[in-house]
Structures are given as structure tokens and as C-alpha cells.
Design brief:
It is a single chain. With 405 residues, the chain is mostly helical. The chain is 81% helix and 0% strand. The longest helix is centred in the middle third of the chain and has 31 residues.
């Protein structure tokens, strides 16, 4: 199938409009980062330590990763639409719990439940793969995530301003309203794109070995996971670096925090335009190299003694640019290894990526202390991106050897 199926906006008898896919993915991204500039203030509000408050990022990502293991098989069994609607409904209720949490423990519990919104991100990608073949999927995912990148770019900036004028709860009230609006949009526009497999959930999990035994799947999944690991470490550590190392207030931190999203949007635009022409392997390779190069130059500037908030956040633009090229192409690669398991592959690949990100986010939060400066975060990010570059080089090398046989 080379032509996209007919789509009519707000007609759930047809596949969803690209606007719906963008907003579904964007809702998940917004829930992850809008409140990050508020972490220092939330630490004070709940009378706790930053390391504990930072778990609101790490445990969210951890639960996010576990859920993705189930989301794919369940959506292959039941269809995309009902799983997305249930996930969004639970997210709205969990957001209310976060707003009225009496202490940090209750807040963290509801924060974990908020991770149900991940179904929107995971299955928006699977829906794309349901609709179009591999190279077109890479381009379409690139365009979807290019516009989605506006959300994490504006999210922390909006969150910082809301925090400064109305307090941290304003961020979660906004998530509540937008979550309810996204639920309505999905209900009205999201047509089913995948027929039910008819298999039991246990049988669906039995499909995992087919993916796990594929070197191509691992190559693409680890390329995405390790390259994006730098960004997740950034999510966990940048609020501390901005507020404690450079002394930024929430509004300024929120604006600077969005630097990677600028690069990410550009990288997604490049993916959308050139992936089908150049091929996903070369796009992943160049993206990982750009990400690594930006971090390397940033480290050299800090070594030379010229480190500052502008240097730290400015060079993070290259991390976003590289990830904008790596993630949509590596995602299209994982979904295309076994097209009949697109939902399962999306969930498993996402679990590997987000699970690694949760660990790196927690590691960054644990290693950053008064006196460490930005160094632990910079080295964690550099190391994970370097490993991601090695993974895609191994994929390219293996494909060349297979073609020679």
C-alpha cells in the first residue's frame, strides 16, 4: 500500500487526521515536562528533598516503560482506538489526584498513574505505520514529531510562567483541561486503523521472541534508546543545573529549558523531508553524530573555563537536532522489522527507550549535588550518545555484509 487512506477530520469512521496524531503525541510530551521548572518550588511545598521530588520524572518514565510492554500487544488484540481512549481517561483522573495530593508520597503515586497517557504517544506511531509503508512512515512520523516538538519547547516556558504567577498546581490544571480536550478529539476523530488480531493477550506476548531474536530490531531500538538517553538524562538533571548551578528563576529556566526542542523540531523537519530519499540508516547515523558533536564541543567549552547557562543550554540544541533525526527513523525501523507486529514493536521499542531513560534520569538526579556543577550530566549524556552511534554503525555494517552474501 503506497497511498494513504482517505481521511475526514472529526469522522471516526475514517483513520485519524494528522492533527489528531500530533495532539495525541504532544499531550504525552507535555505531561512529561511542563512542570519541570517547578521542581525546586514543589520540593519546598512538599517539604522534601530535590532527589525525592525528582522521582516525579524518573518513576513516571519507569512506569511509562512498563506500560509500553502491555500497550502494544493489547492494541494489536483490541485495536488502537479503545486503548487510546482508556489511557486518556485514566490520565485525566490521575491529574486531579496530583492537584489535590496532600503529601509527596500521594503525589508520586498519582504521578505514576499519569503515565497512562503514554498510550497516546506509542499508538500514534503505530497508527502511522498502519496507514503507510516504512519509508513513508519515517517521513510521516518525522512531520508528526516535528510539530509535536513545539510542545516540549513551549511547555517548560509556559510552566515556568504559570508557576511564577499562580504556583506549581497551575501546570496540572492546564494538563487536566488539555487532557479532557484531547480525549474528546480522540473520541470524535480517531478511526480504527488496525483490525483485531483475535489472539489472546498471552499469545500476543508470545510474539515478543520474534522481535527479540531480530538483530535489526535491537539495532534500531538501541540506537533510539541510547541517543534519546541523553535527552532523558537532561530532563532529570537540567532543572538542578539551571536553578542550583546557574541560579536561574523558574520563568527563565523554563525558556532556556526548551532549547533542545528547537533543534528537535528542525531535526524532525529534516527527517520528514529527506528520510524517504536518503534512507533511515544514514539519517540515524548523521543524527547521532550531530548529537555527539554538540555535546563534545560543550564539554570542551566548559573545560576551557567558559561554561555558563547560555553555553550549557545553547549546545543542547544539537542534542535535540540529532534526536530529531534519530528517533523517527529508528522508530520506523523498529516498526518495519515485523510489520504485522507494529503495535507490539512500538510498545517494546518504546519500553526499551523510556526504561533506559528512566534509569538515566534517576542517575543524573542522584549524581548532581552542590559542588558538582554540570559535569555529571554532561558526561552521562556524552556516553549514552556515543553508544548509540556505535549501535547504528553495527546495523549498517551488518546490512552491508548481508548484501555481499
Amino acid at each position: 500500500m503506497s497511498d494513504a487512506p482517505q481521511v475526514r477530520f472529526l469522522d471516526r469512521t475514517t483513520p485519524p487526521h494528522i492533527v489528531t496524531l500530533i495532539l495525541l503525541a504532544g499531550m504525552s510530551a507535555l505531561a512529561m515536562n511542563i512542570f519541570l521548572p517547578s521542581l525546586p518550588g514543589m520540593t519546598e511545598y512538599f517539604d522534601t528533598e530535590y532527589r525525592l521530588m525528582q522521582l516525579s520524572v524518573a518513576i513516571y518514565l519507569g512506569v511509562n516503560a512498563v506500560l509500553q510492554l502491555f500497550v502494544g500487544p493489547i492494541s494489536d488484540m483490541m485495536g488502537r482506538r479503545p486503548v487510546i481512549l482508556w489511557g486518556l481517561g485514566i490520565f485525566v483522573l490521575a491529574t486531579l489526584g496530583c492537584i489535590f495530593a496532600p503529601n509527596v508520597a500521594v503525589f508520586l503515586i498519582f504521578r505514576m498513574v499519569q503515565a497512562s497517557v503514554v498510550v497516546a504517544m506509542v499508538l500514534s506511531r503505530a497508527v502511522v505505520r498502519d496507514m503507510v509503508p516504512q519509508d513513508q512512515a519515517a517521513s510521516m512520523i518525522g512531520y508528526v514529531t516535528m510539530f509535536m516538538a513545539i510542545v516540549p519547547m513551549l511547555g517548560p516556558a509556559v510552566g515556568g510562567v504559570l508557576d511564577e504567577f499562580f504556583g506549581w498546581k497551575a501546570n496540572f490544571w492546564l494538563l487536566l483541561v488539555l487532557g479532557a480536550a484531547t480525549f474528546w478529539l480522540a473520541w470524535s476523530d480517531l478511526g480504527e486503523t488496525s483490525g483485531r488480531s483475535g489472539q489472546t493477550l498471552w499469545r500476543q506476548f508470545g510474539d515478543y521472541p520474534e522481535l527479540l531474536n531480530s538483530p535489526r530490531f535491537w539495532g534500531y531500538a538501541l540506537s533510539a534508546a541510547l541517543s534519546s538517553g541523553a535527552f532523558f538524562a537532561y530532563l532529570g538533571g537540567a532543572p538542578f543545573v539551571g536553578s542550583e548551578v546557574f541560579g536561574l528563576d523558574p520563568a527563565v529556566l523554563g525558556i532556556l529549558f526548551g532549547a533542545p526542542a528547537i533543534g528537535y523540531m528542525i531535526g524532525n523537519g529534516i527527517s520528514g523531508r529527506y528520510s524517504a530519499r536518503i534512507g533511515i540508516n544514514q539519517m540515524i547515523l548523521w543524527g547521532a553524530a550531530i548529537c555527539l558533536g554538540g555535546l563534545g564541543v560543550s564539554i570542551l567549552v566548559f573545560v576551557a573555563g567558559y561554561g555558563s547557562a547560555w553555553v550549557f543550554f545553547g549546545f543542547m540544541t544539537f542534542v535535540g537536532l540529532g534526536n530529531g533525526m534519530v528517533i523517527p527513523n529508528a522508530t520506523a525501523g523498529t516498526l518495519s522489522v515485523r510489520p504485522h507486529l507494529a503495535g507490539t514493536a512500538s510498545g517494546l521499542g518504546g519500553a526499551i527507550m523510556i526504561g533506559g531513560g528512566a534509569g538515566l534520569s534517576a542517575l543524573a538526579g542522584a549524581m548532581l549535588r552542590p559542588g558538582t556543577g554540570a559535569w555529571p550530566l554532561l558526561w552521562i549524556m556524552f556516553g549514552t550518545v556515543a553508544l548509540g552511534l556505535v549501535c547504528i554503525l553495527l546495523v549498517i555494517r551488518r546490512e552491508k555484509r548481508l548484501h555481499m552474501l
